[in-house]
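ok new one. same drill as before - structure tokens go in, u give me an amino acid for every spot. 241 of them this time. try not to just spam alanines like last time pls lmao
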């Protein structure tokens, strides 16, 4: 029997049992062991195609009091959004999101869809549909850096609506790659609730360094500021050799 088949056949009954356990390590094992795209193990192709067998596990743990368990459930659902976003959205949409534990899972589970500007995901995390927001004084400093140094993003976010709005702010860096290509990576920034015509000034520091999954190359790196998935500001910095 192939390893993929062994994991698919063995995890489901074990996980279903552990999901009813009281100890958080067993509960997290239930969720982690059945993740379709577990980073430190092989992917479970049958669950990538159809995640429904894991529904009882996710249901049992959707409001768990342990942050450790909730993080695993959120990561599990985030895996599912990569192949079956509609299934994950429907699942979360049916949960009692007034529960703070469920809210926490929803925010973290939908992070990839929110970064991509998925309107259904944004609605589920409470973002205002069609939010009217303007960005002024968007600045990136310093404009020239070396690998390992920090750039600071600063700007003023202005609500142009009359009613209170919830705005999810993210930013994307277009990393320079080989052969003049770029690789876009979106980072979480902040979720704001602004009253009508209210404004707030924000700043954020980002270290620019080599990672095992991302090698840096010199050149102009563009940065996009996103509000509810929509680009509302642009700037750049120069990474020196």
């Amino acid at each position: 029997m192939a390893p993929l088949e062994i994991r698919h056949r063995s995890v489901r009954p074990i996980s279903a049992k552990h999901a009813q356990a009281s100890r958080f390590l067993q509960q997290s094992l239930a969720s982690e062991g059945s993740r379709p795209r577990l980073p430190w193990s092989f992917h479970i192709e049958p669950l990538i195609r159809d995640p429904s067998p894991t529904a009882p596990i996710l249901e049992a743990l959707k409001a768990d009091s342990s942050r450790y368990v909730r993080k695993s459930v959120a990561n599990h659902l985030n895996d599912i959004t990569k192949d079956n976003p509609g299934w994950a959205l429907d699942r979360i949409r049916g949960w009692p999101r007034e529960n703070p534990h469920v809210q926490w899972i929803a925010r973290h589970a939908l992070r990839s869809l929110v970064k991509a500007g998925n309107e259904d995901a944004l609605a589920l995390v409470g973002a205002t549909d069609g939010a009217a927001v303007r960005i002024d004084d968007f600045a990136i400093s310093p404009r020239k850096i070396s690998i390992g140094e920090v750039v600071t993003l600063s700007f003023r976010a202005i609500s142009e609506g009359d009613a209170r709005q919830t705005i999810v702010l993210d930013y994307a860096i277009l990393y320079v790659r080989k052969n003049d290509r770029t690789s876009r990576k979106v980072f979480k920034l902040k979720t704001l609730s602004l009253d009508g015509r209210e404004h707030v000034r924000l700043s954020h520091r980002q270290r620019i360094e080599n990672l095992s999954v991302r090698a840096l190359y010199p050149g102009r790196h563009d940065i996009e500021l996103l509000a509810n998935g929509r680009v509302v500001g642009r700037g750049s910095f120069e990474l020196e050799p």
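The two ends are 51 Å apart (CA to CA). and btw Residues 1-8, 10-14 have pLDDT under 50 and may be disordered.
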